[in-house]
Design brief:
This protein has 216 residues and is of the alpha/beta class. Helix content is 41%, strand content 18%. The chain has a 7-stranded mixed β-sheet, sandwiched between helices.
């Protein structure tokens, strides 16, 4: 499966993780998003089978981080995720991509072995690999081999929409279900599970905020 390009779509930092606003200030949410993105880029860079990594965003600060980690940076021209992914796919195909792996930047448990396992499931072509989200019926990773003839439907219940799309098509479909990939960091309770806040006093403070947030 060569070349395979990984695409990481990222919202502007100021708009990121809005559902954590009750427990994290804006600067804390920005810092969290940066940390998650940097971690994701490191994992993708270390995974065997990926030719290049691309980050697409409307935020130049995000694109600067991407370039720092050796990824392509593409300025997004659409505010909707699925339109942005179509834009990214066109750029990837124009640069010789035969397969794509879409990975969001908010999977704090993602491991290199998960990425490599998903890639391995993507052979032989034509094949689609879909990793469901634990919450909202979404899709947390998607591999297309080859890249064409697939409509992105990310959002609530996208897992069933993506599965329905490939049912009866020329594509063979595989699912990848691992807690490392199904878990995404989106709501206050996820901060405790993710274990990304290292300092014990900060952890204690976040637990107090989450408890108070849940009561209100």
């Amino acid at each position: 499966m060569d070349p395979l390009i990984a695409i990481v779509p990222v919202k502007p930092l100021a708009e990121s993780k809005s559902r954590l606003a009750g427990v994290l200030a804006e600067n804390e949410r920005v810092a969290l998003t940066r940390k998650l993105l940097e971690r994701t880029l490191l994992k993708l860079a270390r995974a065997r089978g990926i030719t290049r990594v691309m980050v697409i965003s409307r935020d130049e600060k995000v694109l600067k981080i991407a370039r720092k980690f050796g990824a392509w940076s593409i300025l997004e021209t659409h505010a909707h995720l699925n339109d942005a992914l179509d834009q990214a796919r066109r750029v990837c195909v124009a640069n010789g991509a035969r397969a794509l792996l879409i990975v969001p930047a908010d999977l704090p448990k993602l491991r290199v072995r998960d990425i490599e396992n998903i890639i391995a499931l993507g052979e032989p072509a034509p094949r689609v690999v879909i990793a469901p989200a634990a919450r909202d019926g979404g899709t947390n990773a998607l591999l297309l081999n080859p890249t064409h003839d697939f409509i992105f439907q990310f959002g609530d219940n996208s897992f069933s929409a993506h599965m329905a799309q490939v049912s009866g098509s020329r594509y063979q479909v595989a699912t990848y279900e691992s807690d490392n990939v199904t878990f995404d960091l989106d709501v206050p309770e996820d901060l405790l599970t993710a274990k990304i806040i290292n300092h014990q006093s900060e952890i204690k403070n976040q637990k107090s905020k989450i408890k108070n947030h849940s009561i209100t």
